Amino acid sequence: MSKGLWVGVIGVIAVIGIGIGGFYGYHQTQDKALKTEQAKTKSMSEKLAGIDKKTSTDKTDKESSNGSSSSSISSVSSNQSSVTETESVALTDAQKQAVNEAFLNWADQRAAMGNMAVNDYYFGHGAAGRGDWYANTPDGQMQVQDENNPGPTAFPIHIVGGVVFLTMKDGSTGRQNDVVESTAGGYSDKADMSKPITKYILGDNGKVYELKTSDGQVSLTTGFGEYNDDGTASDYQPGQDFVLSGDGAAQTELQNLLSAYR
């Protein structure tokens, strides 16, 4: 092979080598750039994931905090409303009896502390007509005995129960199971009628009303009136009206007892 031919061959090989090297170098450069971008993307993804996680955590914490605050606010509102609640509550006769029994047990200690006796014979009467019995209160008439004349819908308040505080002749204090021997004799059978007698009546509106006398001149029907047999107003009206009791403890106790049925 001539010298000129070898020179040509060598030149061609050199050119090919340079081309391959350039291509390899370019490929390496591109591959490095791709890896760099992938690394950046991964780093950014991790950063975004971290931000999302933090945002999610912050949101959860904020919602939890808001929930706690809301719960606390609700709790405060509930406590406030439980003191001022005066909406009527519908009770069965059995439930009324249970509430009054619980109230009477509470009044037992109150009476003993005041050296007085307490009983649930706050109202009673002998032979009567077929009209409803009621009591006058600052919030309207309270139905005390339902004869359906005029009936429950005619009254804004309905009785849940009641108690009477008095002083026994024998000095007994606290809850008494028997304070009246006869309707005719009334409280005078066993109570010292020279001492004050106080009646409490419990309304389904959550309020306690009281009628207090300066002496014992009070009968079983004192504070109560009766409608005519046809449900119209009669001349037999209460001689005394009940007032809203200033006994805050009694008001709170009734509210607590009725809260179970609201």
What does the secondary structure layout of this molecule look like, with pairings?
Elements: H1 3-84, H2 93-113, E1 117-119, E2 133-137, E3 140-145, E4 157-166, E5 174-175, E6 198-203, E7 208-212, E8 225-226, E9 243-244, H3 248-259
Parallel strand pairs: 1-5, 3-4
Antiparallel strand pairs: 1-4, 2-3, 2-8, 4-6, 6-7, 7-9
Helix pairs in contact: 2-3
What would you call the structural class?
Answer: alpha+beta
Low-confidence stretches: 1-83
User: End-to-end span in angstroms?
Assistant: 117 Å
Shape: globular
DSSP summary: helix tally:
3
H/E series, N to C?
HHEEEEEEEEEH
Notable characteristics:
single chain, 262 residues, alpha+beta, 2 domains, nine-stranded mixed beta sheet, disordered N terminus, membrane
Task: Give a description of the structure.
The chain has 262 residues and is α+β, with helices and mostly antiparallel strands. The chain has two domains: 1-84; 91-259, no CATH class. The protein contains three helices and nine strands. The protein has helices at 3-84, 93-113, 248-259, and strands at 117-119, 133-137, 140-145, 157-166, 174-175, 198-203, 208-212, 225-226, 243-244. Strands 1, 2, 3, 4, 5, 6, 7, 8 and 9 form a nine-stranded mixed beta sheet that branches. Strand 2 (133-137) and strand 3 (140-145) form a beta hairpin. Helix 2 (93-113) runs antiparallel to helix 3. The protein starts with a helix and ends with a helix. The model is unreliable at 1-83 (pLDDT under 50). Residues 65-88 have a biased composition (Low complexity). The chain crosses the membrane at residues 6-26. Residues 44-88 are annotated as: Disordered. Keywords: Membrane, Transmembrane, Transmembrane helix.
